[in-house]
């Protein structure tokens, strides 16, 4: 990591003495917050609430102290640098002002496990492997009777979505719109008519922002084993009946607040990812996940903070190519709102 660079000085206002916080040092990936450092990322080290006009030094990887400059009249200091291939490696850094070691102000580890932190951090090489999502395994589909089914598919398009989530229908619509290039288009449904329901579920595990549950036609006594009157498809266990997308809204809002972004913006990224699952796409994860942006090839990357921070807000070729492989052609069109298996014509 390149740190021995010309220092810049942050301006601030001194806090009243009685309210003066303890001095601390922070390490931030400015280019892609809360993700690991890689070549071409801009890194910032900043010191806050330290002694005024104090001498800033750093000890890196057990070497001799190196003077980096002085704090300003308010006890603030910062420097930025750009990572390169020459700075790839592991680092241990301890920072001091006037010889007094500073505590580190690091991101909350459970929510941001891959964010650079002090004293130990890594500058990673760029990830060069493939990282496509693949198709959801059969175990991801529920037959509603306690067993699992083979992979199921949508037997019609468009697929109607609705939301009872606190984020509202418009946020889900923004996420659904991201998939307009895919072979299975989405459209807005209603409380009475929906193929996909997005709802809040704060009972999800704290580390889970969203979860998608897919059900095949064995869940529907009326249509299972019948011929769809619009498409002519046999609605057996190879056809999807319904999808439920669950959102851990307290966790989503809390992480968004820590990232200083609107909860609805982060929720849109989460829902876009979960809608990919509703289209049978799996998570895209390398064998050893690091959360770095070069690993993030599309919206199906399996760690939401990196997906969002790295700008993966719309499906890429990594997502769409896999979706095209699952659906070589779009399902037949049927207008939303009609029950085409009403007559219960048995499959041949």
Instruction: Provide the low-confidence segments as ranges.
Output: 1-18
Structural class computed from helices and strand pairing: alpha/beta
| Order of SSEs | EEEEEEEEEEEHEEEEEEHHHH
Number of strands: 17
**Could you name the CATH topology of the largest domain?**
Collagenase (Catalytic Domain)
Q: Major sheet: order of its strands?
A: 10-14-17-13-11-12
Assigned CATH class of the largest domain:
Alpha Beta
Tally of domains = 2
Which CATH architecture of the largest domain? 3-Layer(aba) Sandwich
Task: State the helicity in percent bands.
Answer: 10-25%
What's the CATH H-level superfamily name of the largest domain? Answer: Collagenase (Catalytic Domain)
What does this entry show, briefly?
This protein has 348 residues and is α/β, with parallel strands linked by helices.
SSE topology sketch:
Elements: E1 24-29, E2 42-48, E3 55-60, E4 66-70, E5 77-82, E6 89-97, E7 100-101, E8 103-104, E9 120-123, E10 141-142, E11 159-163, H1 168-177, E12 186-188, E13 196-200, E14 210-216, E15 226-227, E16 234-235, E17 240-247, H2 249-259, H3 263-278, H4 304-309, H5 317-326
Parallel strand pairs: 1-8, 10-14, 11-12, 11-13, 13-17
Antiparallel strand pairs: 1-2, 2-5, 3-4, 3-6, 6-7, 6-9, 14-17, 15-16
What does this structure look like?
The chain has two domains: 17-123, Immunoglobulin-like (Sandwich), CATH 2.60.40; 138-326, 3-Layer(aba) Sandwich (Collagenase (Catalytic Domain)), CATH 3.40.390.10. It is built from five helices and 17 strands. The chain is elongated, with a radius of gyration of 25 Å. The strands form four sheets. The chain has a six-stranded mixed sheet, with helices on one face. Strands 3, 4, 6, 7 and 9 form a five-stranded antiparallel sheet that branches. The chain has helices at residues 168-177, 249-259, 263-278, 304-309, 317-326, and strands spanning 24-29, 42-48, 55-60, 66-70, 77-82, 89-97, 100-101, 103-104, 120-123, 141-142, 159-163, 186-188, 196-200, 210-216, 226-227, 234-235, 240-247. The termini are far apart. A hairpin with a 2-residue loop joins strand 6 (89-97) and strand 7. Residues 1-18 have low confidence and may be disordered. It is α/β, with parallel strands linked by helices and 348 residues long. Helix 1 (168-177) crosses helix 3 and helix 2 (249-259) crosses helix 3.
């Amino acid at each position: 990591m390149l740190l021995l660079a010309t220092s810049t000085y942050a301006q601030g206002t001194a806090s009243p003495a009685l309210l003066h916080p303890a001095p601390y040092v922070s390490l931030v990936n400015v280019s892609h917050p809360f993700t690991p450092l890689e070549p071409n990322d801009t890194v910032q080290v900043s010191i806050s609430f330290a002694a005024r006009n104090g001498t800033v030094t750093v000890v890196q990887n057990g070497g001799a102290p190196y003077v980096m400059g002085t704090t300003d009249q308010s006890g603030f200091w910062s420097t930025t640098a750009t990572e390169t291939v020459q700075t790839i490696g592991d680092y241990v850094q301890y920072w001091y002002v006037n010889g007094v070691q500073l505590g580190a102000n690091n991101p909350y580890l459970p929510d941001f496990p891959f964010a650079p932190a002090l004293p130990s951090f890594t500058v990673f090489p760029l990830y060069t492997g493939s990282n496509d999502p693949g198709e959801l395994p059969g175990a991801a589909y529920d037959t509603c009777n306690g067993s699992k089914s083979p992979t199921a598919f949508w037997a019609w398009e468009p697929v109607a979505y609705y939301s009872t989530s606190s984020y509202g229908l418009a946020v889900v619509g923004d996420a659904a719109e991201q998939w307009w290039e895919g072979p299975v288009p989405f459209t807005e449904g209603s409380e009475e008519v929906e193929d996909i329901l997005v709802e809040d579920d704060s009972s999800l595990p704290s580390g889970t922002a969203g979860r998608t549950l897919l059900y095949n036609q064995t869940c529907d006594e009326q249509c299972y084993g019948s011929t769809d009157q619009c498409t002519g498809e046999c609605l057996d266990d190879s056809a999807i009946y319904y999808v439920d997308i669950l959102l851990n809204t307290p966790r989503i809002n809390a992480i968004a607040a820590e990232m200083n972004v609107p909860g609805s913006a982060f929720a849109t990224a989460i829902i876009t990812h979960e809608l990919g699952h509703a289209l049978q796409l799996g998570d895209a994860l390398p064998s050893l996940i690091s959360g770095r942006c070069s690993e993030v090839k599309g919206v199906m990357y399996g760690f939401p903070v990196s997906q969002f921070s790295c700008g993966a807000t719309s499906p890429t070729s990594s997502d769409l190519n896999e979706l095209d492989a699952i659906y070589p052609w779009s399902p037949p069109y049927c207008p939303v709102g009609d029950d085409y298996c009403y007559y219960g014509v048995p499959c041949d």
